[in-house]
Amino acid sequence: MWGPNGRFGYLPISNTKAYWYLLINAHPNDPLIAKYNVSDLIERLKNYPQPVTDIIELTENHHILKHDIYDIPAIDQYVFDHIALVGDAAHAMTPNLGQGACQGIEDAYILGLSLSRHPDHGLQEYEKKRLHRANTFVNMSRRVGAMAQLEYPFLCRIRNFMMKMTPQAAYRKQNQFIYDYRYEKRKALSRH
């Protein structure tokens, strides 16, 4: 749930437990955020729809973990001589698309294939195959995060309206890129 006081999400883990998170705009190591407890969070999110405050209310203060989120800007090189960067070392991204670990797994898979097919230049092949796709996720995740973390109610209303007006075809195209690794290759081939 996106709103001016932060983004809230949750997943049931069992019949009696849920994992939840709240993303709040703040400075690194913000001392005010460090002091937040259940009551503070309920007050902050009191205007959000249920089950938000119900879930938070069931949480014990010592179970609340507070972490800053960091990413790195997209880089233009993953391979340095005989060293290849993979995963977060190559493309640390915000969790807005849920793609951080996924892209690390894709790195490992493509690196393994590239090295097994071309032992002498497999690292360069890996970089060539992964650089654009992984960096696209870094940049896309950053943009989605900026949009999702808007705090001004007027801008939130504009964002929400624009999301409602976005054609379903645009969402399908984005999902195809995210979930179909071969999408870029087919798209490139169709241009020739």
Automatic annotation (TrEMBL):
InterPro entries per record: FAD-bd, FAD/NAD-bd_sf
Q: Keyword set for this entry?
A: FAD, Flavoprotein, Monooxygenase, Oxidoreductase
The segment(s) forming the FAD-binding domain are: 75-139
Question: Which intervals of the chain form a coiled coil?
Answer: none
User: Does this UniProt record's set of keywords contain Oxidoreductase?
Assistant: yes
Pfam families for the chain: FAD_binding_3
Quick check: keyword DNA damage in the entry? no
Required co-factors: FAD
Looking at the record's lineage, which domain of life comes first?
Answer: Bacteria
Among the GO molecular function terms of this UniProt record, one is: monooxygenase activity
**Protein's name according to its UniProt entry:** FAD-dependent monooxygenase
Upper taxonomic classification of the species? Answer: Bacteria, Bacillati, Bacillota, Bacilli, Bacillales
